[in-house]
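Quick illustration, no need to memorize.
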Amino acid sequence: MKFHFALIAAGVLLAAGTAQANPDLAAKSACTACHAMDKKQIGPAFQEIAAKYAGDKDAEAKLVKKVKEGGSGVWGTMAMPPNAAVKDDDIKTLVKWVLAQKK
């Protein structure tokens, strides 16, 4: 029975794609040290970011660059440090996931 449950769970995760894995990737990449899903911490909530960039066709490229290089001024005076140690593919995955978050 446990084996069947494990197979079903694995199938659900695979079918869901990276959407299910990204909270773990966000934590592993230290995003959650400053960001939460639905409330501002040091940085804006993931849902706030998604809302701000909704409909912006260039949002993904802008945010990938900002996550990698760091930046400030969009959400206030607190600077986001560069995340050069995070793999480019992981940054792209995280940005796509953040942009998909809805309130």
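Residues 3 and 9 are 10 Å apart (CA to CA).
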